[in-house]
Amino acid sequence: MAALMKSVTVRALKFSSAANFRSNRCGKTPILCIRSFSTVLSPPSKAIVYEQHGSPDSVTRLVNLPPVEVKEKDVCVRMIAAPINPSDINRIEGVYPVRPPVPAVGGYEGVGEVYAVGSKVNGLSPGDWVIPSPPSSGTWQTYVVKEESVWHKIDKACPMEYAATITVNPLTALRMLEDFVNLNSGDSVVQNGATSIVGQCVIQLARLRGISTINIIRDRAGSDEAREQLKALGADEVFSESQLNVKNVKSLLGNLPEPALGFNCVGGNAASLVLKYLREGGTMVTYGGMSKKPITVSTASFIFKDLALRGFWLQSWLSMGKVKECREMIDYLLGLARDGKLKYETELVPFDEFPVALDKALGKLGRQPKQVITF
């Protein structure tokens, strides 16, 4: 990984979609370059690029990209921060269902400051903070040039680590709470993967609605600390998987109602535990499969409990023409983060330490906070 951060100047990479890549590359200098025929160029850029799919720590490298034209409807954004999400890693590996053609710049969400705008851009000005909304590939670089329609102006009062990470995980939590079961104050939900950012957001968003949460965590070092952290966020009950090895898990509910809705991002036995908690007619929504193990459901669960199994993929929801709705929810979530009502742990890492952040995101150094690259 040490070799990754050796900067390589790119003269002419043969991109499978040159126009697509040009729209993602720009770089960092104090002034804009203007040619004699008045074409506005972005500064040159530094970017994390992969030219083939594979293990991210093997196929990614830092490159210097030349300036790109800022067309009349384009906005050049100086990136401030961008996270390393599991889906980013999957895209680089080539296993994610939707991914840009290679070579490509990594990253899918982030926050930046408007650096320059094209002559026909009316809604944004230099100095504005923006995020790509819906998310857009190519955020792991110092500057990004895309059309104005890609960018959503946000409140600068929101901490940058939340602005950079607000879409993929918090929006997933919000949509799952609202899209599958009509929940009312006093109801409850159950979830595994509760220590994930989605899980933490579920706890807090549910609490704001008067909904109780039953949370399942893995048995591993630090589980007691994790339990206390989730309780501090508002979790009603937190159980390790081993604690639920009892014949009647519902006996552990106390005064909480049986949940009508469950969330699964793990699979395997952890998914079975969510199903055991659900009341008759309940629904389990799967949005991940961290254990890479299948979900096994008994025949009795369908016949006698009439359970429903659903799936949620944010990319699919965003592709349904919900840009306006998405941006309204982003503003709502950013407001909660600004007011301290939505919290999750992140670690800010300078761009030149990207290899270390990537190793942490890949799990090489144990459980780590969400890695957020700062530019």
Automatic annotation (TrEMBL):
Catalytic activity from the UniProt record: a 2,3-saturated acyl-[ACP] + NADP(+) = a (2E)-enoyl-[ACP] + NADPH + H(+)
Alphabetical list of Pfam families matching this protein: ADH_N (PF08240), ADH_zinc_N (PF00107)
Annotated keywords: Fatty acid biosynthesis, Fatty acid metabolism, Lipid biosynthesis, Lipid metabolism, Mitochondrion, NADP, Oxidoreductase, Transit peptide
Highest taxon of the lineage: Eukaryota
Subcellular location: Mitochondrion
E.C. designation(s): 1.3.1.104
Cited Gene3D superfamilies: Medium-chain alcohol dehydrogenases, catalytic domain, NAD(P)-binding Rossmann-like Domain
Every Enoyl reductase (ER) domain range: 54-373
Membership in a protein family: Belongs to the zinc-containing alcohol dehydrogenase family. Quinone oxidoreductase subfamily.
PANTHER family from the UniProt entry: ENOYL-[ACYL-CARRIER-PROTEIN] REDUCTASE, MITOCHONDRIAL (PTHR43981:SF2)
Protein name: enoyl-[acyl-carrier-protein] reductase
Organism, scientific name: Camelina sativa (False flax)
Gene: LOC104711035
